[in-house]
Design goal:
Blueprint lengths: L4 E6 L6 H10 L4 E3 H9 L6 H7 L4 E2 L2 E2 L1 H9 L2 H25 L5 E5 L14 E6 L2 H9 L6 H10 L3 H7 L2 E4 L4 H20 L2
Subcellular location: Cytoplasm
Function: Catalyzes the phosphorylation of the 3'-hydroxyl group of dephosphocoenzyme A to form coenzyme A.
EC number: 2.7.1.24
């Protein structure tokens, strides 16, 4: 049986990656959502709560990880962030492998991975799709989020591979600086192209 084509979907903060991932799902493509997986593992009764509480005392409660508190601890301290990542990333990787096995009969799959370039996962996918919009649109979207400040935004940006570099390394770019409808059409066209290419391979 032919293996599924794997698309790695990524993009910097606020570029519209989650919205575009939903568009892939609506086009019939199963999506592994690394962020959702992290939230599940960190949620109430999440598998990683004991390890996170041990490494970062006071960072969890009855609702699971206290995201804002943990964010304050790790986004300001790169060693702390590396410790948190060492707890989380191996488990996410394991669950991604299980997702792949479950969907081995599908033509196309999407791995929605915010840190695809930062963590070197781009070698493990067939195509990298970068979600991108003008910096002004990105800034406006992110600053509209509750609890976000310009300082926090700049700092998170500094932890991420710059958008220009992501674009340069992409196989395909999905522009989210246009209307949602136009972006959805671009996603549907890309899905069709990738499935056709696979068949004629
Ligand atoms: C620290 C946590 C709890 C803060 O949660 P919060 O809901 O406040 O923020 P959120 O997860 O939406 O992240 C905000 C922005 O920071 C970026 N970001 C998150 N983790 C990282 C990281 N390890 N390195 C660089 N950027 C990161 C996200 O891509 C996003 O653009 C959470 O980000 C976390 O657990 N991060 C570590 C796990 C991880 O690496 N997740 C990302 C992909 S699997
Ligand atoms: N053409 C478009 N495509 C995608 N999103 C758009 C578009 N136009 C406006 N938006 C809006 O931009 C926002 C993007 O948010 P989204 O959560 O998808 O970003 P994200 O990149 O996943 O963020 P983060 O990396 O911070 O988790 C949404 O509110 C969405 O409705």
């Amino acid at each position: 049986m032919k293996k599924p084509t794997i698309v790695g979907l990524t993009g910097s903060i606020g570029m519209g990656k989650s919205t575009v991932a939903d568009m892939f799902e609506r086009a019939g493509v199963p999506v592994f959502d690394a962020d959702a997986e992290v939230r599940r593992l960190q949620g109430p009764d999440g598998e990683l709560i004991p390890a996170i509480e041990q490494a970062f005392p006071g960072s969890t409660g009855p609702t699971g990880v206290l995201r804002e508190r943990l964010g304050e601890l790790v986004f300001a301290d790169s060693d702390a962030l590396a410790r948190l990542e060492a707890i989380i990333h191996p488990v996410v990787g394991r669950n991604r492998t299980a997702f792949l096995a479950e969907h081995a009969d599908k033509p196309l799959l999407v791995f929605d991975i915010p840190l695809l370039f930062e963590k070197g996962g781009h070698e493990a996918v067939d195509y990298v799709v970068v979600v991108s919009a003008p910096a002004e649109a990105q800034r406006e979207r992110v600053l509209a989020r509750p609890g976000m400040t310009p300082e926090k935004f700049e700092h998170i940006l500094s932890l991420q591979v710059p958008d220009a570099e992501k674009r340069a390394k992409a196989d395909y770019i999905i522009d989210t600086g246009q209307s949602l409808k136009d972006t959805e059409q671009a996603v549907a066209a890309l899905v069709e192209k990738l499935i056709l290419e696979r068949v004629s391979d």
